[in-house]
Write a structure and sequence with these properties.
By secondary structure, the protein is of the alpha+beta class. The protein contains 4 helices and 8 strands, in the order βββααβαβββαβ. Strands 4-3-2-1-7-6-5-8 form an 8-stranded mixed β-sheet. Strand 2 and strand 3 form a beta hairpin. Helix 1 packs antiparallel against helix 2. It is globular, with a radius of gyration of 16 Å.
Length: 155
């Protein structure tokens, strides 16, 4: 599993979205992540990827929080909460394959709104959820977009 691209000082958040008149409208939910965003080739096969925050602070804090939630649920004898805590995403992670993008099961948009932000908005069309990743550096955002073959959608 190798990192293809990294970018420091990014912001990320889980999103819920709806599609209205062909446009994706989203709102952030949950905790905002700040740190080093990476694009990882999951199996070094060039078709399965993930975007997530891989810096030590996010990984350490997230893992500690996840273990704490699982332990609390076990102590409360609540197997459902323990299961949910075990499945919880603590790295703001969006996984996708090139096949899923091609077949429109998942979608990634590169949105640029000068001078305010540039970011990747990732949608899982099966479950109505996704993630947004905002970049401080336009050149790094362009690198991610170019690697994924995305054209900027300038607002």
């Amino acid at each position: 599993m190798s990192y293809k691209i990294t970018s420091q000082n990014c912001k990320g958040r889980k999103i819920d979205f709806i599609i209205q008149d062909g446009e994706f409208l989203s709102k952030g939910i949950g905790r905002e992540f700040v740190g080093t965003l990476v694009l990882q080739d999951r199996f070094e096969n060039g078709t399965t990827f993930r975007l997530f925050f891989a810096d030590n602070i996010n990984v350490g804090f997230g893992l500690f929080s996840k273990i704490g939630k699982i332990a609390k649920a076990i102590m409360d004898e609540n197997s459902i909460d323990a299961y949910r805590a075990g499945k919880d995403d603590y790295l703001c992670c969006f996984e996708f394959t090139l096949e899923e993008l091609k077949n429109e099961i998942k979608k990634i948009e590169y949105i640029v709104q000068p001078p305010y932000y540039q970011g990747l908005f990732c949608y899982d069309l099966k479950n109505g959820g996704g993630f947004s990743y905002l970049f401080n550096n336009i050149e790094e955002a362009d690198q991610f977009a170019n690697f994924l073959g995305l054209e900027p959608n300038i607002l």
